[in-house]
């Protein structure tokens, strides 16, 4: 029998394959697959090993530290946690004014029987994009498309609903049904993006089309925009010509599906109704968050999306800010979305976010000391100290907080191992009141947390109950630890250049 090379040559010459002639080729294919599988396994589990080693090493290190050194570490962690809690509650207090203004505007619109300031004929032309990865969202895409086409309260001659999707395989009869939508709805446009492997590819392809729009809205496929959201966003642009991006509020509507979705729903209310508008007021800049965001078309076509970034939305938001663009958070521009229903889906989603934030933070931290690059608005050609410190807090301090939270946990764990308490009173004193200053820092931090969640309760969505907020408050330290661990995991993935993209499961 000749070697495998001879068989391959013979096959190529005769253009026929016998059963026994497949064996050498199959062996090569199998060996290659084994190598790839082992490589993938190492790539998947190396971040886990790094994070596990981090926890073990940190805990053991504190077990052998002197009392004086422990006191120093304890003071540093308590002070930094106090800073984070203080910043959070300040953002919450700064969010009160935007919330009141949003309610006031709604009340005025109701008094005028929903007669908006701008005449329909003068509204900007809007391209609303629903981005979909079809295999993952084939069960919901038609429902969301028809909802947007029928329910959005915007003049049909001034809006185009664009379903921009990619799929590695044909899915019928769904794709045929999608492409027939323009026959029923003249303002529908269905675009299948060739050779696309990501949301960024889909969007960048759309940006190459000359659609004649003034504004572009971006939505993930699981969203139900409020019928008035496009109108509120358009009015915001009309009221302030310097606004380049309007980011709306995202609300989780499947909060009652599982315990996890109820906690995520509270978290989203805290983020979108409190933290984002509060930070925008406090530091002087806002962020596009990936969905339910409206852009001036000229700005978005120029910036585009960077497909090399796992969170291309955050990267585009920071690039816009670095160019002097003005982003505002409008609480009346609301949209309803799905939260992951299983911990596995939640874990994959947040790992992608964590690694993406790490990428974006490394790329854009230079804004702390750099000026505005090629300003799009001459009025925003300078970045003041407040904005620079806001960038430092958002990118560096936020990323560092993962280590501060987990190091504090490792320090407490080392106490429990070395000086295991014999009563609840000893445990309480050991964990929280080792040193006198800890009492004040701990009490103030708890007060800040309660104040933040109280403000969140005042602006909670219709899908969040007071009971959910109370449970979230009780479990917040554990929730914080989970998020900090995910943050570390994201850093570890970035360190080993992990690049797999896991789409969030939809239903």
Shape: globular
Unreliable residue runs:
1-27
String of helices and strands: HHHHEHHEHHEHEEHEHEHHEHHHHH
* Average pLDDT number: 85
What strand line-up does the widest sheet have?
3-2-1-4-7-6-8-5
What's the total helix number? 18
Q: Mind describing the biggest β-sheet?
A: 8 strands, mixed
Give the N-to-C terminal Cα separation: 55 Å
Helix content: 55-70%
Strand content: 5-15%
Give the total of beta strands. 8
Structural class of the secondary elements? alpha/beta
Over all CA atoms, what is the radius of gyration?
26 Å
InterPro entries: Aspartic_peptidase_AS, Glyco_trans_2-like, Glycosyltr_2/OpgH_subfam, Nucleotide-diphossugar_trans
GO biological process, one term: proteolysis
Membrane topology: Multi-pass membrane protein
Pfam families: Glyco_trans_2_3
Task: Note down, in words, how this protein is organized.
The protein has helices at 4-14, 22-63, 67-94, 96-111, 134-137, 141-151, 174-179, 181-184, 199-207, 229-239, 259-283, 297-303, 312-322, 343-364, 385-418, 424-432, 436-458, 466-495; strands at residues 126-133, 159-166, 188-192, 215-220, 224-225, 243-252, 293-296, 326-337. It is α/β, with parallel strands linked by helices. It has a domain at 4-49. The chain has an eight-stranded mixed sheet with strand order 3-2-1-4-7-6-8-5. α3 (67-94) crosses α15. The termini are far apart. Mean pLDDT is 85; it is low at 1-27.
Fold topology:
Layout: H1 4-14, H2 22-63, H3 67-94, H4 96-111, E1 126-133, H5 134-137, H6 141-151, E2 159-166, H7 174-179, H8 181-184, E3 188-192, H9 199-207, E4 215-220, E5 224-225, H10 229-239, E6 243-252, H11 259-283, E7 293-296, H12 297-303, H13 312-322, E8 326-337, H14 343-364, H15 385-418, H16 424-432, H17 436-458, H18 466-495
Parallel strand pairs: 1-2, 1-4, 2-3, 6-8
Antiparallel strand pairs: 4-7, 5-8, 6-7
Helix pairs in contact: 2-15, 2-18, 3-11, 3-15, 3-17, 11-17, 11-18, 13-14, 14-15, 14-18, 15-18
């Amino acid at each position: 029998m000749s070697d495998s090379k001879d068989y391959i040559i013979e096959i190529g010459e005769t253009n026929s394959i016998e059963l026994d002639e497949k064996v050498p080729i199959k062996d090569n294919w199998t060996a290659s697959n084994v190598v790839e599988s082992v490589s993938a396994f190492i790539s998947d589990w190396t971040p886990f090993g790094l994070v596990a080693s981090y926890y073990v090493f940190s805990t053991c290190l504190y077990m052998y530290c002197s009392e004086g050194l422990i006191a120093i570490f304890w003071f540093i962690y308590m002070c930094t946690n106090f800073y984070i809690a203080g910043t959070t509650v300040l953002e919450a207090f700064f969010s009160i004014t935007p919330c009141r203004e949003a309610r006031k505007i709604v009340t005025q619109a109701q008094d005028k029987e929903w007669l908006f300031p701008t005449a329909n004929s003068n509204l900007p032309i809007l391209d609303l994009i629903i981005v979909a990865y079809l295999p993952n969202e084939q069960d919901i895409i038609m429902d969301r498309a028809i909802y947007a086409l029928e329910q959005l309260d915007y003049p049909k001659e001034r809006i185009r609903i664009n379903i921009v999707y990619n799929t590695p395989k044909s899915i019928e009869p769904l794709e045929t049904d999608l492409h027939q939508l323009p026959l029923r709805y003249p303002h529908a446009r269905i675009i299948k993006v060739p050779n696309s492997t990501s949301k960024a590819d889909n969007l960048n392809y759309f940006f190459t089309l000359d659609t004649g729009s003034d504004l572009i809205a971006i939505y993930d496929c699981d969203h139900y925009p409020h019928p008035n959201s496009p109108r509120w966003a358009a009015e915001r642009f009309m009221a302030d010509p310097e606004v380049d991006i309007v980011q709306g509020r995202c609300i989780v509507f499947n909060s009652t599906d599982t315990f996890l979705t109820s906690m995520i729903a509270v978290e989203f209310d805290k983020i979108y109704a409190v933290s984002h508008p509060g930070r925008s007021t406090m530091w002087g800049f806002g962020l596009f968050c990936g969905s339910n965001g409206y852009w001036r078309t000229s700005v978005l076509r120029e910036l585009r999306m960077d497909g090399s970034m796992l969170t291309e939305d955050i990267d585009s938001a920071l690039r816009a800010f670095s160019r002097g663009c003005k982003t505002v958070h409008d609480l009346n521009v609301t949209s309803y979305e799905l939260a992951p229903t299983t911990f596995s889906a939640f874990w994959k989603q947040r790992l992608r976010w964590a690694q993406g934030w790490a990428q974006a933070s490394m790329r854009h931290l230079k804004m702390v000391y750099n000026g505005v690059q090629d300003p799009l608005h001459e009025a925003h050609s300078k970045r003041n100290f407040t904005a620079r410190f806001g960038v430092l807090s958002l990118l560096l301090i936020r990323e560092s907080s993962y280590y501060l939270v987990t190091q504090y946990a490792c320090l407490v764990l080392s106490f429990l191992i070395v000086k295991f308490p014999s009563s609840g009173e000893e445990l309480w004193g050991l964990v929280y009141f080792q040193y006198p200053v800890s009492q004040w820092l701990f009490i103030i931090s708890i007060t800040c947390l309660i104040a933040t969640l109280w403000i969140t309760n005042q602006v909670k969505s219709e899908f969040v109950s007071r009971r959910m907020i109370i449970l979230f408050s009780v479990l917040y330290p554990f929730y914080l630890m989970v998020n900090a661990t995910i943050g570390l995991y994201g850093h570890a993935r970035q360190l080993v250049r992990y690049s797999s993209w896991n789409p969030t499961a939809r239903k």
